């Protein structure tokens, strides 16, 4: 296969074709505000909107164009996934926290869907459901039990799909059945951010693009933030920088590891091919440590597929080739299909793999969405805003907790990621070898 058939035509996000991030209307930097927010992605803007509507003066700062990071680069799947199992969360925290985290996922998705409707944000949202494939029959049995338990505990429409019925949901023989969740859907992430930005600006949030916060210092009862545009005083500070956290928030940076997530998108495929491969146009996932997430584009004409990468290799084409192999492993008939786009963005992981709202030295942090920020970022940002407002019930969240533990010997350069990626890949190979197929 030639490089021309391996590499993508464009190295920019597919989503930017319809909604490219760009400059916001220039606004003078205020001398002081009630709340300064670091980061103008989903979390920062959702928080700013809540605060502004409560009568607070708010300035949000972004080092790039607002939304140029993960908010316009992600896969657009409203999964709200939590990586650790219920049992693992109970061991790390307690049973009550594990139950609360699971229940809050349902609430956060419902909040997002209601928000899109109430604010009239047109971002191609469709609640299509999600199919998750099982590697072997043993994994299928566990996933089926989990789906049944989820339906009983939370009333979510969730059910098993045996191998003999799999082709009704996905045109592949790679899996040995799977499960479906009907409360998950897909949207256009860049359009979502653009709509959220418009609403936040209309509410009075002052948004400053290409204005990184370079330092945050205590100043009496408040704070002083340094930016290239000048200094601003704030009574309260909220940091929502997630995978793009830098030296301005050193305490957070030692606790969040930025991980590259790369996505490829195919050229337009014939309708009969899409009908065969993705007959119900669902969102897709699978039960591997380094599993792929994939979906049809909102127009139903292309397939988008993503996965993690270490970001430390010398061969820039290797991550694209790995995703292409994953695509053809699932759908052999797509061997040789052209790729229109390939890009990456940063997701933020922490040691216990849970989103978090926490306070340190008077600064509130809302971050660590662990690859599921479409649901968690607006929700956690809004909860954090209510925390600053002292809103009582609306400020409560299972994610308001102690800070995540610091990563030893880490100060911003994830030098250890290649080893972690290789370790996860080894776990996947062992799981594949042991799976009953």
Automatic annotation (TrEMBL):
<dbReference type="InterPro" id="IPR006076">
    <property type="entry name" value="FAD-dep_OxRdtase"/>
</dbReference>
<dbReference type="GO" id="GO:0016491">
    <property type="term" value="F:oxidoreductase activity"/>
</dbReference>
<protein>
    <submittedName>
        <fullName>NAD(P)/FAD-dependent oxidoreductase</fullName>
        <ecNumber>1.-.-.-</ecNumber>
    </submittedName>
</protein>
<dbReference type="InterPro" id="IPR036188">
    <property type="entry name" value="FAD/NAD-bd_sf"/>
</dbReference>
<keyword id="KW-0560">Oxidoreductase</keyword>
<dbReference type="Pfam" id="PF01266">
    <property type="entry name" value="DAO"/>
</dbReference>
<feature type="domain" description="FAD dependent oxidoreductase">
    <location>
        <begin position="34"/>
        <end position="386"/>
    </location>
</feature>
